[in-house]
Amino acid sequence: MFPRELILTMPYIYLWFSQKTPESRARLVAGLGGAILSIGLARLIAHFAPFEVRPMYDAASGFHKLAVDRAADMEGWSAFPSDTAAFSIALTLGLFTVSRTASVALTLLSMAFFGLARVYLGIHYPLDVAAGWLIGGLAAALAQTPPIRGLAGSALRVEARAPPLFYACAAMVLTETGQMFDNVRDALHLLHMIA
């Protein structure tokens, strides 16, 4: 199945090859870093905040259990905050300094499909999604500060010195980012169970 979040990483590839200036490429790398940061922040908050049952598992909410492959995986995860909302907003806002048109269009699309739709389906409460959007926006803004963008410049140095290594790693990072690091999360969950 095609991961829906991968749609949000495709503009990064397009802009990487169409906007070849070091500044715009550093901003794109920082934008991806902001998306990764947003997932980490959302999961950290979810870990320390009180557990919140998802509406689809709460009989009093009026929602019915959603019939999706990963619905069983969601039962043990707190609904607050929405890491999907945080991730998608951070990823789309990460494009803002390179392509405002793409960023605004994708942000609106993201808010509809990765935010409001999740409320409608009973995956999250409205506050869960709003908190996710706030986390994503803060992560995207933080990622575009000069010190963080300076770190992104390190990736450009690797690309200049060792393009095959850079693009192999970039393909892996973009694939995992487009899947919200599901493979990494599954591996960490397995390690946690073993330990």
From TrEMBL:
Q: Does the keyword Cell inner membrane apply?
A: no
Give the matching SUPFAM superfamilies: Acid phosphatase/Vanadium-dependent haloperoxidase
The UniProt record lists the Phosphatidic acid phosphatase type 2/haloperoxidase domain at: 27-144
Transmembrane stretches, start-end:
28-49, 79-98, 129-148
Domain of life where this protein originates: Bacteria
- Gene3D superfamilies assigned to the protein according to its UniProt record, in alphabetical order: Phosphatidic acid phosphatase type 2/haloperoxidase (1.20.144.10)
Q: What Pfam families does the database record attribute to this sequence?
A: PAP2
Q: Which UniProt keywords apply?
A: Membrane, Transmembrane, Transmembrane helix
List the protein's name.
Answer: Phosphatase PAP2 family protein
